[in-house]
Design goal:
single chain; about 200 residues; mainly beta; five-stranded antiparallel sheet; about 0% helix; elongated
């Protein structure tokens, strides 16, 4: 029996140790797994429909929570989009090379990634609280010059967190009801809430 000294080709953190001191090992047996913490990848799981819009090289923004106004904690680039659906999550794994992190990220930490897949110039974006679901789609209550709210059907183009892109049914600069719209009657009087002074 002969002892051998193993030297890792990289510096990193030991994330798995399967070797036992004094035990025999087979050729090709994995003894130690080491992660290079300076070169981390992030795995995102997207729906198959969303993954179909993603390609290598796209930019990714990471946040700790899914809210749009949450602070950004890092960026990256898509390096691989899996060709199969994960049996456990039912999602498609997208691998992202982390390029810039504003703090130390931990192995196994959960992040939320945002990948822009399309650009719509002059898009009308409203908070999702303004949408009222109906059997056929969605309504938005538009406020007229007499402060009366009128239901109007709208078409939702896409969602991004708590923001909704309305592709049809609204015009720029129209005033809409963003709180208490659900259950509102057509023609109801509304009160505009003023923004607090800074």
């Amino acid at each position: 029996q002969q002892l051998a000294k193993l030297t890792a080709p990289i510096a990193g953190v030991v994330t798995r140790l399967s070797a036992v001191l004094g035990a025999n090992v087979d050729v090709g047996q994995v003894l130690v797994e080491i992660t290079d913490t300076q070169s981390l990848d992030v795995q995102l799981f997207l729906s198959p429909a969303a993954a179909a819009k993603v390609s290598n090289g796209q930019s990714v923004t990471f946040r700790e929570v899914s809210a749009d106004d949450a602070p950004t904690i890092g960026t990256g680039k898509v390096v691989d989009v899996s060709a199969v659906v994960d049996s456990a999550s039912r999602g498609v794994m997208v691998r992202v090379a982390l390029q810039g992190a504003k703090r130390t990220l931990r192995l196994g930490e959960s992040l939320y990634g945002q990948i822009p897949t399309a650009t719509h110039l002059k898009a009308i974006v409203i908070p999702d609280d303004a949408l009222v679901p109906t059997g056929e789609g969605f309504l938005v209550f538009v406020v007229d010059s007499a402060n009366k709210a009128h239901a109007r059907p709208v078409t939702v183009g896409a969602r991004n967190g708590h923001r909704v892109w309305v592709s049809d049914g609204l015009k720029a600069a129209e005033t809409i009801v963003t709180a208490g719209a659900y259950g509102m009657d057509d023609g109801a009087a509304v009160v505009t809430k003023k923004k607090p002074e800074p």
